[in-house]
Structures are given as C-alpha cells and as structure tokens.
Amino acid sequence: MYKNDGITRRYSEGFKLKVLAELSSGKYNKSELGRFYGINRTTLNKWIEQYDRKDLMNTRILVETNDEIGRIKALQKEVEQLKSLLLKKDLDKLLVDSYLEVAAKNMGYKNVDELKKNLNIRPS
Questions:
Q1: How many domains does the chain have?
Q2: What pLDDT digit, counting tens, does each position of 28-81 carry?
Q3: In sequence order, what are the residues at sequence separation of 6 or more whose Cβ sits closer than 8 angstroms to the Cβ of residue 40?
Q4: What is the pLDDT of residues 66-123, one digit of tens each?
Q5: 61 in a domain, yes or no?
C-alpha cells in the first residue's frame, strides 16, 4: 500500500488492535498483513509486544531425542575438559618462563633469551 516515501506514519490504537485481531484469527500471517496494509513486520512485532500479545509472536520449539541430549552433554563435558587442559598448559608455560627468568638472573645473564641461546633452546 505504502512505500518508504519518507513520511512518518502514526497508527491509531483501533487500527493496531484491528490488525492484531486479524493476525490472531489465523486468516493472515504477518507477511500477508504487512503487504496488505503496508506495515513492516518489525512494526507488527512492536505492536504485539505493546499489547502483550505474546501468543502472536513466532515461537521456536526445540525437539531433541535422548541421544541428542546425551551427545550435547558429552560435548559440554569435553569442552570443560579442554578448557581445563588449556588453562593447565598456560599455567605450565607461565611457570617455565618464571623459572627461566630466575635462572637467567641467578646465572648472570642479561635476559632469558641470552640463557636460551647459550643452552641451545629455541625461543618461544
């Protein structure tokens, strides 16, 4: 009906309720009403929220089998284990770097790189 012509439209409360009633009747969906009245679907969603008509919002139903639920739980457990291992690895690296700093200082080297060079350790 209308194209985006730069005009700000204000809709009456009666019109909004009429459109929502048509939507709730099930005769038309949001896209059809939007095309018929020239209303954007986001505007319809705002009206649905404004008048607390959550029954008209799109709902998503998730159906999972027991196998899928078990798989998801196993994957979540694996993710937690990997996070734990990564944290341990980072802490181990930090510990080794700290040891090397102390060793370099005690042995009279300027820095850790000089110690690694003399011990033939590749810099990380």
A1: 2
A2: 888 888 898 888 888 888 888 888 877 777 666 677 788 888 899 999 999 999
A3: 34
A4: 888 889 999 999 999 999 999 999 999 999 889 988 988 898 888 888 888 888 777 6
A5: no
What is the DSSP secondary-structure string of 16-37?
A: HHHHHHHHHHTSS-HHHHHHHH
Answer yes or no: pTM beyond 0.70. no
Is residue 113 situated within a structural domain? yes
The residue assigned the tokens 């080794």 is: 96
Q: How many Å is the maximal CA-CA distance in the chain?
A: 86
* pLDDT for position 93: 92
For 61, list phi and psi in degrees, rounded to 5: -110, 125
Same domain? 48 vs 22: yes
Residues 101 and 70 in one domain: yes
Q: Are residues 27 and 52 in the same domain?
A: yes
- Domain region containing 111: 66-118
d(CA 10, CA 1): 15
Q: Does 85 lie in the same domain as 42?
A: no
Residue 65 DSSP one-character state:
-
